[in-house]
Amino acid sequence: MAATAAVTAGNRRRRSRAPAGGAGNDDAEEHHANPFIDTASSTSSRVQFRNVASRARWVEEAGAAEVVESKGKLWLTTGVTRGGKLCYNVEEIGFLVEKSALILLNDKDQTIGIEDIYEKIAGGKYGCSWDTFQAYKHLKSLGYIVGRYGVPWTLKNSSTSDTNQSFNKVDGTCSDITKSLKEMHIDRLTPSFEVYLPNSMFKKSSPGAPNFLLCLLRNKPFARVELEMLENNFGGIPLKYCHVDNNGRVSFLCFDEVALPRLP
Amino acid sequence: MSRIIADLQASLRDSEAVAMLSGDGAILAVHDLAVLLNRAAFGRHIENAGEEKRQWFQLGPEEMFFLYHTLKCITVQSANKKQMGEAELWDLFTSTSEPFPEMYKAYQHLRLKNWVVKSGLQYGADFVAYRHHPALVHSEFAVIVVPEGEAFGGRCGRLQVWSDLLCALRASGSVAKTLLVLTISTKACDLTSSDCLCQLIVHERTITRWIPQQCRELRDNPSREEASTEKQEDTREGIVFSYWGVILSFTIISVLAYKLKF
């Protein structure tokens, strides 16, 4: 059935092409599902239900989970390898558990429920905040490959101190890399994630340079001076900015420096 | 455009054009220069059936000051025929409109690069900028001017809250223009005189929305990320199967019919 295979591949390509947006129309358009109508069809049809989920054990000292049983293919672009072991950080755990692709266990091999996972994220102790998690989920769901900025995808040794160092905080709290940036008085301004376009050839052993770095903007937009300092420090790789509003809506912006040409 | 403006400058000088202050801007009467003024996109023509020889144009404060101060091709009088000097004009404009220094600097910055700059108020911006005459091109940019520095006092608060910035972005996007933010910065500087203009620095930055759904670069191998909806996929595949089934059966039937006929 080569014909059908070709057609489905074509369908997949077509489906992934952008929904036509008018200039300036963006994913912020409101589409309200009417809650006053009884819908027979399940509204959760977008969520992937998997029959087989990977299993990982939460390691409190590392603030991450070690995978004990890996299923499926998501691990190829999610999680980092430390001394041969695959580890997921909190936002990865949250994402995978929401997709029923992962079961998180405590050291007594009991399942850790989603409320506890949300607690871990919202608490902000493990290097990711609730807002940052929204941004992470949004991009991952669209197929982007997202890793914490400054965290290598693979490391040979797995000693605890290394793990602590490498799981440096997405929010710019203490870690080696962010310490040196603090000295430069721009501790608000580290990128949170490095992002790669969807890529079936992605290899953690040689990921290449990210397509862009994502910075999370919170209370207020960046001032010009802050933007310029940020660009100088991470020059070369494009920067994109993400704003998560109070309702969890995620929007992405670019603040590009331009030089309008002198016209004839 | 630079040539048109140079021509306009020379012609206005030669005709010793005088603008009269009116309202927030000025009005200018010209003989035979209407076409040039229109082509250079300065001012708005005032219809006047009575006048045959002279054409009247209404100029905005930035336009008027640009012709007077930068191109130096007009003189300005007040309503009671009093000649206005540069300092007086500057005082007048800054007292009528506090943001005049940064607005004018932005206007002048773009005009000197030969962009056409018109008021952007109808689009929710300070200015709109065109690559050439508005009749020939659509404007590319909705321009918002943001001052920066103590000298500007409380005016530095623009685009400092999300609702502000996203509002401006939405407004410009809905009219298909890119939002251009011109930040006017200065070290301590005395804004009470037009001499401050050369100490103001203009920074250009665009704010654009990025839509992740539209920018994914797909290779031929489907992405390993299986977050896409398998259920929807199944339905689509079902439709595809039936589509091909129809084609196939139609082909078979026509072949059979063909064979039966012979």
TrEMBL record, chain A:
Q: Which Pfam families match?
A: tRNA_int_end_N2 (PF12928)
Task: Output this protein's name.
Answer: tRNA-splicing endonuclease subunit Sen54 N-terminal domain-containing protein
The family annotation for this protein states: Belongs to the SEN54 family.
Region annotation (Disordered) ranges: 1-42
Q: Which residue intervals define the domain tRNA-splicing endonuclease subunit Sen54 N-terminal in the entry?
A: 41-104
What are the record's GO terms for cellular component?
tRNA-intron endonuclease complex
- GO BP of this protein: tRNA-type intron splice site recognition and cleavage
Record keywords: tRNA processing
From TrEMBL, chain B:
Q: Gene Ontology terms, cellular component aspect?
A: cytoplasm; tRNA-intron endonuclease complex
PANTHER family cross-referenced by the UniProt entry: TRNA-SPLICING ENDONUCLEASE SUBUNIT SEN2
Q: What is this protein called?
A: tRNA-intron lyase
Q: What is its EC number?
A: 4.6.1.16
- Tell me which residues make up the tRNA intron endonuclease catalytic domain: 100-185
Keywords carried by this UniProt record: Membrane, Transmembrane, Transmembrane helix
Q: Which GO terms describe its molecular function?
A: nucleic acid binding; tRNA-intron lyase activity
For this protein, the record's SUPFAM superfamilies field holds: tRNA-intron endonuclease catalytic domain-like
- Could you give a single Gene Ontology term from the biological process aspect? tRNA-type intron splice site recognition and cleavage
InterPro entries attached here?
tRNA_endonuc-like_dom_sf, tRNA_intron_Endo_cat-like_sf, tRNA_intron_Endonuc_cat-like, tRNA_intron_Endonuc_N, tRNA_splic
Q: Which reaction does it catalyse?
A: pretRNA = a 3'-half-tRNA molecule with a 5'-OH end + a 5'-half-tRNA molecule with a 2',3'-cyclic phosphate end + an intron with a 2',3'-cyclic phosphate and a 5'-hydroxyl terminus
> Which residue range or ranges hold the tRNA intron endonuclease N-terminal domain?
20-90
Query: Is Transmembrane helix set as a keyword in this record?
Result: yes
Entry similarity comment: Belongs to the tRNA-intron endonuclease family.
Write one Pfam family the protein is assigned to. tRNA_int_endo
> What sections of the protein cross the membrane?
241-260
- Top-rank lineage group of the source organism: Eukaryota
The kind of enzyme this is, by top-level EC class, is lyase
